[in-house]
Amino acid sequence: MGHWWERNILEPGKLPLLLALTAFVVTFLVTRVITRMIRAGRGPFGNVKAGGLHIHHVVPGVLLTVVGGFGAVASDRHGAGGAVAAVVFGMGVGLVLDEFALILHLDDVYWSAEGRKSVEVVVLTAALVLLLLAGFSPFGVNDLTQDELQDRGSAIGTIAGNFVFALVALGKGKTRIAVFGAIVPLVAIVGAVRLARPGSPWARRFYGRRPRARAKAALRAYRHDRRWARPRRALQDWIGGKPDPRPLRLPDRR
Fold first, then answer.
1. Which of 3-7, 79-83, 97-101 has the lowest mean pLDDT?
2. Beta strands of the chain (E only): which ranges?
3. What is the per-residue pLDDT across 115-153, written as a single tens digit (0 to 9) for each?
4. How many angstroms separate the CA atoms of 72 and 77, rounded?
5. Contact 27, 88 (CB under 8 A)
6. Membrane-spanning residues where (predicted)?
């Protein structure tokens, strides 16, 4: 275990990344536990207010992110200062992304269905950092041999090709696949060759005069969403808490 730790974490200088990821995940989980206790009216915690203003935890999160980011830039990556800065940065990112939906909508949607976006972004971020920690590099740079790395043309061609695949997957409305495909090229290739989701820029551009392709894409999207939407919502609710039910809107009879 000691040899693995030395070879895979310390020597490549990945300790700050590991500390930042750990602080990020722990901060997010602790924050969700506290907010769920506040929501249920349990425990000694409560909303932070100053002069009648509700201070969301994204505010200290931004401050911690700024301090940790500048501290990491100014400190030695292998020293204690770099480790402390990484922990501070991870804590800040955990607080900020926990309220990602609030930033996106510019509204307090923490316990609404839109608030699930925060949990989704946190899970996606943690997964991507884990891939980086495991040695994956963006656009498949880690897959290049030493000879290819020395050949600048081959390296640039590989990076450009993987970038195009990820961009095509994004144009087909497959955001998650495009993001993961930037780290794992095979994922981007799969997303690029499969049918686009209805309403995506690719579908509007290339399926406009192909009714069979539109119907096939719509059927595939329906089957995919029917299979995975409910388990995904259940996982998000288990991690972040179940959102409040939407209020019923009575029809206007004027």
1. 3-7
2. 49-50, 53-54
3. 999 999 999 999 999 988 887 777 666 665 666 555 667
4. 7
5. no
6. 15-34, 55-74, 80-106, 118-141, 153-170, 177-196
Q: Which of 12-16, 144-148, 225-229 has the lowest mean pLDDT?
A: 144-148
CA distances for 239 relative to 121, 185, 236, angstroms: 12, 29, 5
CA distances from 42 to 6, 46, 99, 187, 188 (A): 44, 9, 21, 44, 45
Given a contact cutoff of 8 angstroms between Cβ atoms, the answer to whether 16 and 72 are in contact is: yes
Residue with the two structure tokens 């201070």 = 55
| Residue 245: burial class (beta carbons within 10 Å; 0-12, 13-18, 19+) | exposed
The owner of tokens 């060759």 is 193
Calculate the alpha carbon distances from 61 to 14, 48, 97, 171 in Å: 23, 14, 9, 32
| Contact status, residue 121 vs residue 103, Cβ threshold 8 Å | no
Q: Residue 116 and residue 124: Cα distance in Å, rounded? A: 12
- pTM reported for the whole predicted model: 0.82
Predicted confidence (pLDDT) per residue in 193-216, tens digit: 998 999 899 999 899 888 898 899
Q: How are beta strands 53-54 and 49-50 bridged, if at all?
A: antiparallel
Q: Which two tokens stand for residue 77?
A: 């990556």
* Residue in the structure block whose two tokens are 């500048």: 70
Query: Per-residue b/e over 150-173, b at no fewer than 16 CB within 10 Å?
Result: eeeeeeeebbeebbebbebbbbbb
**Reduced to 3 DSSP states, what percent helix, strand and coil does the chain have, rounded to the nearest 5?**
70, 0, 25
